[in-house]
Amino acid sequence: MKLAWASSTDKGRVRRINQDSIYADGKLFAVADGMGGHAGGEVASKLAVDTISELSSDSGALEGFRASFLEANRRILSEASHSQTLKGMGTTLTAALLVKEDGLEYFLVQNVGDSRVYLFHRGELQQITKDHTFVGELLRSGSITEEQAAHHSQRHVLTKALGVEPVVDADVFKVMPTEGDILLLCSDGLINHVKDAEIESILSGSNTLQEKADQLIESANLSGGTDNISVVLVEVVALDVDKSDNPATELGVAPDESTGRSLIKRGPELLSIPRPLDRHATRRGGGVITVRVALFLLLFVLLVGGVLFAVQLYEDHSYFVGESHGSVAIFHGHPGGLLWYSPAVVRVSSLRVDQLNVVEASAIKDTVLEPSLSAADNYVKNLEARIREQHYIAAHPLGGSESSITTTTTVSGSGVG
């Protein structure tokens, strides 16, 4: 198989540094999109491509290719554990390895994260890799549409990346290209801004392969360039045997014999949605946002907010009548206080507790709970009215005089003549 390749990477129009790393040597091609602070992402992505280029060059076997990803993951974790500034760094990694087996040449494609590999086959762009993102899993399960996925607020939240967990499970695909096919490896800085139709138009053009790579970068920048952009193009210039219309197959999955196209069987276990990574930065080049922690904090804030609201609501509707320095008083709040709320005096009556009878005085000293201020006010006013009435009776005794009482009787019926 005779290949031609070209590559280009750019920091974009927003990022201060480029945390992407690329690699191309005629046999191995790779793109890594780093994350984790100012320097961490750059270190992680470079470690990833350096590791797989070192190990994959020794063997073209599937197990060797898989092992190179596992070793890259281990080295990133190890490096981060020895440096506080690199703690939490990680990277996506997608790679294509040219393999020759029993006289047959093909590509092994492996990926972790949302950097992609496409096959441009007979004028059409076909995505080979599957995005390891929360939204990607929702899309594959049929929970959301393509349009919803494109504008989903969590479309950048990864479910897999190198350098996050001790063991990472990468996807591996077998790609059988035909002459004229182009493999496109890219970071999400390209696909976030350039539509498939525009990519197809650029790859269909008459420019050189390097000019096409540069044009893809330029298109992403013209559309915003909000992230680092990396592109690797690999063109099959000549092929010993032209393969069929079944250019890409996920390993372990047989092609559909009736159509000749790859058939990816989806069992129930593949339709489950993995939870987002616990320690993965959801925005490239920014601070680390932990999805589980973010959800926990959100739930915690909602819970605390609910408790505060309930306490405030309870306090707003809590009143009681009690004693304040020997006088009958109305308080706002709960007797003895609740959490950080202490009872507050609303009104102090001129009525003293020692003016009350034994039953009333005991009730006031134990506090009388009321559901509202008006109810508490009515309770005190009734006490005041009873004491005033008692004073009035004491000041106006009946003595010896008797009250004259006039009784009027109405008799119904006919008059007496």
UniProtKB/TrEMBL annotation:
PANTHER family: PROTEIN PHOSPHATASE (PTHR47992). This is Protein phosphatase. Residues 4-236 form the PPM-type phosphatase domain. CDD domains: PP2Cc. InterPro entries: PP2C, PPM-type-like_dom_sf, PPM-type_phosphatase-like_dom. The chain crosses the membrane at residues 293-314. The lineage of its organism: Bacteria, Bacillati, Actinomycetota, Acidimicrobiia, Acidimicrobiales. Keywords: Membrane, Transmembrane, Transmembrane helix. GO terms for molecular function: protein serine/threonine phosphatase activity. Pfam families: PP2C_2 (PF13672).
